[in-house]
Amino acid sequence: MLERLKAATAAAQARETTAFAASQRAAEQARAERDDRIRRSVAGQVALARRISPYQASRYVGWANVLTSELPQTFAALQAGRTTEWRAMVVARETIWLSAEQRATVDAKLAPRLEALGDRRVEAEAKKLAYALDPAGFTERARNAENDRRVTVLPAPDTMARLTALLPVTQAVAAYAALQREADSVTAVGDCRGRGQIMADTLVERVTGQASAGDVPIEVNLVMSDETLLDPNSGEPAHLDGYGPIPAGVARRLALEAGDGTPTWLRRLFRRPGTGELAAMDTHRRLFTANQRRFLRLRDQYCRTPWCGAPIRHADHVTPAARGGRTTVSDGQGYCEACNYTKQAAGWRTRVVASRAGPPEIEVTTPTGHRYRSRPPDPPGRRRPPASPLEKAAQARLRAA
User: Fold this and answer.
1) Worst-scoring range by mean pLDDT, 161-175, 272-286, 358-372?
2) Which residues of 243-264 are buried (b: 16+ CB within 10 A; e: fewer)?
3) pLDDT surpasses 70 at 168
4) How far is CA 399 from the centre of its chain?
5) Angle between helices 72-79 and 100-110 (to 10 degrees)
6) What's the angle, vertex CA 62, arms to CA 18 and CA 242, rounded to 5?
7) Which residues fall within 8 angstroms of residue 88, CB to CB, at 6 or more apart?
8) Average pLDDT over residues 103-125
9) Spatial CB neighbours of 209, under 8 Å, sequence gap ≥ 6
10) How many angstroms separate the CA atoms of 361 and 183, rounded?
């Protein structure tokens, strides 16, 4: 019963999202706003409302439009609770490149079977039907997908990280096979490392050009308290730029125990007494300096748009320079590329507001008047103020529940 209710709610949300996007496009087009800014503005507002990243919201808006307007039987199955939101969106995703008539054909053939299919089967069946309707278009789409090749890094548990490459299948298989061959040859001469360890070390060595995977030159962008750096008994974690929190012992090893042949740089950042926020730097330049951009990236850690979480690519003014904004880190923020472009669209406003609980916050106002606030993560070593009696009572109720 609850699963059917979730599906019906997802259908209503998709319908409302499509209607909202259409109304926003009409309003912005009346003001002669650029199409790319309209798309970013709509995705940005949906992202904040759904508490997801703008990238996820952009895909959701497109899929929701296809689902509600051109896949009536799939949408009806979602409304009735006969399939899940994800499976309905998969059908929209895998048919979004087809013509409206071809999508209707896939919808008629696949929708009656959705209730009996799992996630992978829905994806496979949708692809199969799409290929049968337009083999040339399917092949062209696969060829164009090569333009999306990229490399990403994501945090993993226990101070590990996942380095992922999205590659054309022939290149990916060739790279993996080469790592396997190297592991086989090294194991044959008695190397005691596991096969996976050898492949991982070989990847690092060949990408960086180092003789050993442990001798990679690094610039240590660690934000850590003096206790973490100097006191072996300190349990205060540090923040590693591009990764996140790491244990004190790992941070000290990165900062102090690099190999003799490994260049390492340390840069000091200072916390402001009282509030614990990172101290500010000032300049009269229109553009942020390299050190200011680095400071904003280390302070904000991730894109300042709430729930985005993407890596910081741009440093920009909270109050635009054209409206008198100063080029200071107190009036600056770290953004991913998409969010920085989104706030250039009509109706978006940002400002710095005071906070009783710590450093100033940034308030974002969307074209519809909704307001959201964000604050940078606490730097290592900062202690939060004691909870108020009201907060303590709320925490006690949550524990009791």
Assistant:
1) 272-286
2) beebebeebbebbeebeeeeee
3) yes
4) 31
5) 40
6) 120
7) 10, 11, 67, 71, 74, 75, 77, 78, 114
8) 94
9) none
10) 51
Neighbouring C-beta atoms of residue 363, cutoff 10 Å? 15
Average pLDDT, rounded, for the chain? 83
3-class DSSP state for residue 272?
Answer: coil
- The pLDDT tens digits for 96-109 are 889 999 999 999 99
Q: What is the DSSP string of 90-147?
A: HHHHHHTTS-HHHHHHHHHHHGGGGGG--HHHHHHHHHHHHHHH-HHHHHHHHHHGGG
- Using CA atoms, how far residue 49 sits from 16, 71, 311, in Å, is 12, 25, 21
Closest-CA residue to 232 (of 249, 245, 246): 249
Q: Are strands 218-219 and 264-265 parallel, antiparallel or unpaired?
A: parallel
Q: What is the pLDDT of residues 209-234, one digit of tens each?
A: 776 655 655 555 666 676 667 677 77
pLDDT level of residue 329 (50, 70, 90 thresholds): confident
Residue reference for tokens 């609850």? 2
**What span, in angstroms and rounded, lies between the C-alpha atoms of 91 and 14?**
14
Tell me the C-alpha distance between 127 and 122, whole Å.
9
Q: How far lies 119's CA from each of 3, 123, 202, 383, in Å?
A: 16, 6, 35, 45
Distance, in Å, from the CA atom of 278 to the CA atom of 250, rounded to the nearest integer, reads 22
Residue 63 CB: number of other CB atoms within 10 A?
Answer: 24
Q: What is the pTM of this model?
A: 0.66
Tens of pLDDT, residue by residue over 251-293, are 777 666 655 555 555 555 556 655 666 655 444 456 777 778 8
Q: Indicate the pLDDT class of residue 22, thresholds 50, 70 and 90.
A: very high
Instruction: Tell me, rounded to whole angstroms, the distance of Cα 52 from its chain centroid.
Output: 9
pLDDT in the model for residue 400: 61
Contact 99, 127 (CB under 8 A): no
